[in-house]
Amino acid sequence: MHPKEWISVRDAGIYCHPADAYIDPLEPVSRAIITHGHADHARPGHHCVVSTKATLDIMRVRYGEEMAKDAVALKYGEDYQLGEDADPVKLTLYPAGHILGSAQVKLSYRGNSIIFAGDYKRRHDPTCEPFAVTPCDVFVTEATFALPVFTHPPLKDEIQKLLHSLDTFPERCHLVGVYALGKCQRVLYGLRQLGYSKPVYLHGALLNLCALYREYGHNFGELIPVSEVANKKSLAGEIVLAPPSALNDRWSRKLPNVRTAMASGWMQIRARSKQRQAELPLIISDHCDWPELLRTVKEVDAPEVWVTHGREEALIHQIEKMGIRAKALSLLGYEDTEETG
């Protein structure tokens, strides 16, 4: 049975009828399958959440007891049955390479399968399991950076830009905007990989998730909360990581002679870097760029691809040129791409 007969889009999000489960629902539901811990995919208040253990731990850090009434932690590659015993849906999670605990959701039912890749990337990242190419009948891919203009440089090149700026402006505090989950840890890894051994200073909003990453065996060297630095002038010539929202607020004004940087795939677009008021744009993404999206579609080799989360038209056009059936997930029910997060 083709997935279009048992997958639909409701107000709460993507719904699997025979499993009575939603994938990354937009509002509280009875059963939610969560691809990863970013807030636009992992919302609180569900009755039951099914995900990887790491994603469940991320949700507990962020939401506490409001995460869900019940939770099921699955290992990568472990089969789990949903729905009626006589006619079950098989759920299997595979690594997505996006952030810690991120997973592709594979649902198999009556001889056909669909994979919801969620957010994913193909670059090497030791802070999470690498993307696993997995056969399926329908592959649902994101399209965040699905335009040919997006070709992300190597992580080490962007981290080297930051270190070069630090050498050039040793009297300035380098304040880098990073998202607390995934981007922060990837920047820390990149700094340590290039031999930066000094302490890195963190905004308080980044501490809990860095501590969770440590529990999963990831060592980022010495990290010091900015709140523990009595003399903020001593942060001249140091690297401080903070959420993007803190780059230009009252908190950042306490720092000496700030040089503002922003780590994001969107920094490839000059207008976006100006919008963030980033003197030093760092093109660091936790998503695939254009060549990697096309590579992934080719390697998965599914006969049909559904596209969501962004630049649908360009990617659909290119996939069809590859001889693969493709359609926007919006054609299956979404009226606004913002509904996909």
UniProtKB/TrEMBL annotation:
Signal peptide residues are: none
Keywords attached to this Swiss-Prot or TrEMBL record, sorted alphabetically, are: Exonuclease, Hydrolase, Ligase, Nuclease
Q: What does the record give as EC number? A: 3.1.-.-
Q: Which GO terms describe its molecular function?
A: exonuclease activity; ligase activity; RNA endonuclease activity
Task: Indicate the enzyme's highest-level EC class.
Answer: hydrolase
What domain of life? Bacteria
What is the protein named?
Ligase-associated DNA damage response exonuclease
The answer to whether keyword Ligase applies is yes
Question: What is the native source organism of this protein?
Answer: Alteromonas sediminis
Q: Tell me the InterPro entries matching this sequence.
A: MBL, RibonucZ/Hydroxyglut_hydro, Xnuc_lig_assoc
